[in-house]
Amino acid sequence: MARILAIANQKGGVGKTTTALTLGAALARLGRRVLVMDLDPHGCASAHLGVFPEGLTASAADVFLAEDPLAVDWSAVIRVPGQAPFDLAPSHTRLADLDMDLKDRKGKGVLLRQALDAGPAYDHVLLDCPPHTGVVLVNALVASDLLIIPIQTDFLALHGVRHLFDTMRALNRVLPRPIAYRALATMFDRRARACTRVLELLRSKFKERMFATVIGLDTKFREASAAGKVVQELAPECRGAGEYARLAEEVAVL
Ligand SMILES: Nc1ncnc2c1ncn2[C@@H]1O[C@H](COP(=O)(O)OP(=O)(O)O)[C@@H](O)[C@H]1O
Ligand SMILES: [Mg+2]
């Protein structure tokens, strides 16, 4: 059964999408079969790979809307983008309406887990989560075997994380086992003393629940997004690609 990795932080711009795409590609390079699900209605991961909602017959939203989560038509949902070594379940703006659509649905928090358990065979499914609390984020957290929390190593690093921990605490009360998580320091600027202090703070707070790998600032990520590629395809030797390769090795043995 696939290992499900949710990538979430209620703060925007911390590297969630970059981590979903780049870690996904790094795991694929280790020979793993990888599916990336774009669960953010803004669809940045999909757009990054040149997939836009207008042209889609089905999207990640249909996984939640299927009458029977065990009978989702995954073949209609999944795309094989040429510019990335993994499969993609693209986003759709309808993801933003699911709180309304599923308002009265029984068991609405476990739809994604059920659908993935009955879904196609992958070694890893990476969930690029939306920044706001709602039924999609809850489904992703409930489905996850490991939650990866990218945290930008800046002054307000811990700001958005508080909301995420509130959501997790509420879920942990009803889940059979608490959600397993690891924090990932991102956009680390080795030349900035403030960044080093934030990293020390994160390490003292999260202790063993923090990845040893730190993702540094690398302009290649923005270039990759402009080129519609994952960074490994654009610049396989760049620092960022190397760091996500090390992260993949950590994730692979967790
Ligand atoms: N390590 C990094 N170094 C430099 N830029 C980065 C890095 N990680 C992400 N970015 C850039 O920062 C912006 C926000 O990242 P993104 O992954 O979209 O965040 P989120 O999904 O959390 O909103 C994007 O333009 C992305 O290319
Ligand atoms: Mg994003």
TrEMBL record:
Report the residue ranges that make up the AAA domain in this protein.
3-173
Known CDD domains for this protein?
Answer: ParAB_family
Give the domain of life: Bacteria
**Coiled-coil regions listed in the entry:** none
InterPro entries of this UniProt entry? AAA_dom, DNA_Partitioning_ATPase, P-loop_NTPase
Task: Name a Pfam family for this protein.
Answer: AAA_31
Checking PANTHER family in the record gives:
P-LOOP CONTAINING NUCLEOSIDE TRIPHOSPHATE HYDROLASE (PTHR13696), PLASMID PARTITIONING PROTEIN-RELATED (PTHR13696:SF69)
Q: What is this protein called?
A: AAA family ATPase
